[in-house]
Amino acid sequence: MNLLQIENVSKQFVGHKALDNVSLTIPQNSIYGLLGPNGAGKTTLIRIITHITAPDSGVVYFDGHQLSASDVNQMGYLPEERGLYKKMKVGEQALFFARLKGLSKAEATKQLRQWFEKFDISDWWDRKVEELSKGMAQKVQFIVTVLHQPKLLIFDEPFSGFDPINAKLLKDEILELRNQGATIIFSTHNMSSVESLCDNITLINNSRNILTGRVDDIRRDFGSDRYVFTYKGAEGSLQAAFDAQLRSTVESKCLDDGMVREILRFQPGTPMRDIIATANEAVDLRSFSSDLPSMDEIFIRSVEESNRKS
Predict the structure, then answer these.
(1) Would you say residue 59 has pLDDT above 90?
(2) What is the pLDDT of residues 2-35, one digit of tens each?
């Protein structure tokens, strides 16, 4: 079952095409990574989903029907551009946003107190927003984004300004929200977070969708011709043995114990049994395994290839 379906959406601004026939489908109860370089079109797509702006063409479906203004009540959006009223007290402002989302004062106060305690900011309830650090202000905004338990949550660079301990706290909460039934769009340039959090991703470049799929499937597809070897012998002897089958050397280095570790990329379709046989004949092979590229590598390779074609 899908919560959000985007079909052939395009958006043009003066002298700039922000989105060009973009389609994607976001399953319910998933964390969906929306990726791309700066200026690729991600923010425009988020603004269309949240009904801040409308597409020039194409359709967005939300929870089985065409998106309408009333659906925004079922969304929570934490934008990259943070915005709190600096002169208001922290608790007062959090209550203000909660009431805008339809919660009663009593229910909002109860839930906010629980969240403030969980995020260790209870002592800041009566302090002014301008006294908050960037990370603490971000905690407040995260809380008011999720407080009304929306079906769809959109987080744009949610870990910006967080130290590793608080980043882990936020990651754990995002995973828990997914487990409780929320669907989450996660827009970031932090590819390690994508690997640890996202079920699916879409990569947008130059206003177009250039890569879509499950994170695990994409990493396997991009790593299908890459293998890592550890062997005893002269560095470079393994590369020489493969010769024509080899496309490139991803990594080659001598280890402290006298071993050599190499990651080699082969021509598509090279049989694994032939690779193992050749390696065993050429060197004293100690270990061999498939090598899955990081999302950083996949991002760079996909964007560079897209730019060459455009």
Answers:
(1) yes
(2) 999 999 999 999 888 999 999 999 999 999 999 9
Instruction: Give 69-129 as a DSSP string.
Output: GGGGGGEEEE-SS----TTSBHHHHHHHHHHHTT--HHHHHHHHHHHHHHTT-GGGTTSBG
Q: CA-to-CA distance for 97 and 141, rounded, in angstroms?
A: 9
Residue linked to tokens 């009431």: 99
If you count them, how many residues does the chain have?
Answer: 310
- The residues that bridge with 226 in the sheet, in sequence order, are 265
End-to-end CA distance of the chain: 34
Could you tell me the two tokens for 243? 């010769």
Q: What is the CATH number of domain 224-291?
A: 3.30.70.260
What contacts 24+ positions apart, CB below 8 Å, involve 44-48?
44/11, 44/18, 44/19, 45/6, 45/9, 45/19, 45/204, 46/77, 46/79, 46/154, 46/156, 46/185, 46/187, 48/9, 48/11, 48/19
Kindly report, residue by residue over 206-216, the tens digit of the pLDDT. 999 999 999 99
Confidence band, pLDDT 50/70/90 cuts, at residue 82: low
The CATH label, of 3.40.50.300, 3.30.930.10, 3.40.50.150, 2.60.200.20, for the domain at 2-84+132-219 is 3.40.50.300
Where exactly are the structural domains of the chain?
A: 2-84+132-219, 224-291
Nearest 5°: CA angle at 142, between 136 and 146? Answer: 150
123 pLDDT more than 90: yes
- CA neighbours within 13 Å on the CB side: how many for 185? 30
Helix axes 105-118, 90-100, angle to 10 degrees: 130
Q: What does the pLDDT look like over 26-42, one tens digit per residue?
A: 999 999 999 999 888 99
Mean pLDDT of 152-172: 90
